[in-house]
Amino acid sequence: MNDGESLPINDHSTNCARAGAGYSINYMVDQADVTIKDPTGALQTYVDTKTASGKPMDVFLKATLFDEQTAPFMELYTASRSNWQPAVVGTIQK
């Protein structure tokens, strides 16, 4: 994912927190730019319709799926961030 365009985002949304961690580290990409090969048919697709906009449009790929990761450039839904979790210095806070 180090293509020079996709940078990781720390997502502190309630839905991401409830998915198993206090927040989720994701790459947000356009669906048209993603090709997933699944020769065994093992993958599952989950659509989250309880988003802030109510319109799920982007694809979020877990950053931990990749061997190499870069530091996040942005943190989203920081109002939902756990009070013990500090902001990542140098990132955009939204």
Give the end-to-end Cα distance, rounded to a whole number of Å. 23 Å
- Please tell me the overall pLDDT: 82
Order of helices and strands: EHEEEE
Query: Beta-strand percentage?
Result: 15-25%
Rg from C-alpha positions?
A: 14 Å
Which descriptor suits the 3D outline? globular
Structure class: mainly beta
Largest sheet: 5 strands, mixed
Number of helices: 1
List the helices and strands and how they pair.
Elements: E1 8-11, H1 14-18, E2 24-29, E3 59-62, E4 74-76, E5 92-93
Parallel strand pairs: 1-4, 4-5
Antiparallel strand pairs: 1-2, 2-3
Q: What labels would you give this structure?
A:
94 residues, mainly beta, globular
Task: Describe this entry's structure for a reader.
The chain has one helix at 14-18, and strands at 8-11, 24-29, 59-62, 74-76, 92-93. The longest helix is centred in the N-terminal third of the chain and has 5 residues, at 14-18. 5% of the residues lie in helices and 20% in strands. The chain is mainly beta and 94 residues long. A five-stranded mixed β-sheet has the order 3-2-1-4-5, with no helix packed on it. The radius of gyration is 14 Å and the shape is globular. The chain is built from one helix and five strands, in the order E-H-E-E-E-E. The protein has one domain (8-93).
Give a quick precis of the structure.
This protein has 94 residues and is mainly beta. The chain contains 1 helix and 5 strands.
